[in-house]
Amino acid sequence: MKAEIIAVGTELLMGEILNSNSRDIARELYNLGIDVYHQSVVGDNLNRVSKELETAFERADLVITTGGLGPTRDDLTKEAAAHFLKRDMILDEESIKHLEDFFGSRGLPLNEGNKRQAYFPEGAKIIPNENGTAPACIIEFDEKVLVILPGPPREVIPLMEKYIIPYLEKRTGKVFISDIINISGIGEGHMEEKIMDIIEAQENPTVAPYAKEHGLTLRVTASASTEQETRLLLEPVVKKICDRLGMDVYAIGDTTLEAVVASLLIEQNLSISVAESCSGGLLAGRLINYPGISKVFKEGFITYSNESKINTLGVDSKILSNYGAVSEEVAKQMAKGAANRAKSDVALSITGIAGPDGGTDEKPVGLVYIGLYLLGEVKVMKMDSWGSRDNVRRRAVSQALDMLRRELQIRASK
């Protein structure tokens, strides 16, 4: 099966919005063994979208569009599809009822623009959208398939995972199974070096690396005629990769680094507190993302100024004067001070120079120290980061969580 992806939206052409949907859809299709030879972006214009569909189907068996399903007059993807297919637009009763319930529960009227979201080209299979007001749809014709998806990524990804991928799996007649290998504490290039021979030899299973905001993942996907056959192909490759990467793998499956850390803390009955300077609460926020963290999370301290480090955490003023706030010595005292103040078994501290100003030759922008207090023992990690202020802060938080994760997993293995 050959596929093509069309992203619809004038804002994409103008560079106002990043076209991440085409990338994400292409990766999913690759994992299904479906070749994507073309991607395009077209503005919100009925004739141009219709022409783009005509051109795409001259080359492809499957075309997936994303965007242009909103309530405004320039959202015309479905109308362009109807024009291309020479079909009428038909009201879907279930979709209009969903919209009435959605707006009614919020005390809002259903306007004409929203009503348009319940109209589809005749013969379309409607796909409910649990994360937005615009349903998706699938249209089959002449042994070809048109999939019409909304634009917001928070809607596209769930629709792909829950509806479109299973539909395409059935159409290919194979069973596809993927395992997600979650990796942290290592760069993408270094990770790739360790498993380059596996990536180069890939055929079935396939190995697809992803660099995400909070770390790296490898999606290993196998396909066969039965689930048992697929698992027999998949599991040895996953094991081989995990053996190569060792402690750099923090989990397999759909999870996060903070969820793994929180689970380990709960399993080991260890309470935690955090002390943050440059990260300004991001570390506490990541931990609190985990629903059960209240069992172990005691307190978070944002000690941005030297005065707050002294008054709140008990950092020695002489240490601050001699070594500066961004130092190994202060990171240690912050972690120990947080543990003492909160009476916690574990404490993490972060102090650094996030920039864009404030760096020196001795202590440049991106320099971060992370302190870890664990049952009386204190360790410190030095981190040299790069990029924007936000990137430095986010990387520091991920590194702090990974530092703790490794210690807890080692402790659990003893």
Specify the overall morphology.
elongated
> CATH superfamily name of the largest domain?
MoaB/Mog-like domain
Secondary structure category = alpha/beta
Summarize the biggest pleated sheet. 6 strands, mixed
CATH topology of the largest domain: Molybdenum Cofactor Biosythetic Enzyme, Chain A
The share of residues in helices is: 40-55%
Average pLDDT confidence is 95
Q: For the largest sheet, list the strands in their spatial order.
A: 2-1-3-8-7-6
CATH class of the largest domain: Alpha Beta
> What is the count of helical runs?
16
* CATH architecture designation of the largest domain: 3-Layer(aba) Sandwich
Strand content: 25-35%
Mind explaining what this structure looks like?
The protein is α/β, with parallel strands linked by helices. The chain has three domains: 2-172, MoaB/Mog-like domain (Molybdenum Cofactor Biosythetic Enzyme, Chain A, 3-Layer(aba) Sandwich), CATH 3.40.980.10; 175-252, Alpha-Beta Plaits, CATH 3.30.70; 257-413, Alpha-Beta Complex (Maf protein). 43% of the residues lie in helices and 25% in strands. It is built from 16 helices and 17 strands. The strands form four sheets. The chain has a six-stranded mixed β-sheet with strand order 2-1-3-8-7-6, with helices on both faces. Helix 2 (20-31) packs parallel to helix 7 (153-172), helix 3 packs across helix 4 (77-85) and helix 11 runs parallel beside helix 16 (389-413). The mean pLDDT is 95. Residues 4-171 form the MoaB/Mog domain. This is Putative competence-damage inducible protein. Belongs to the CinA family. InterPro entries: CinA, CinA-like_C, CinA_C, CinA_KH, Competence-induced_CinA, MoaB/Mog-like_dom_sf, MoaB/Mog_dom. Pfam families: CinA, CinA_KH, MoCF_biosynth.
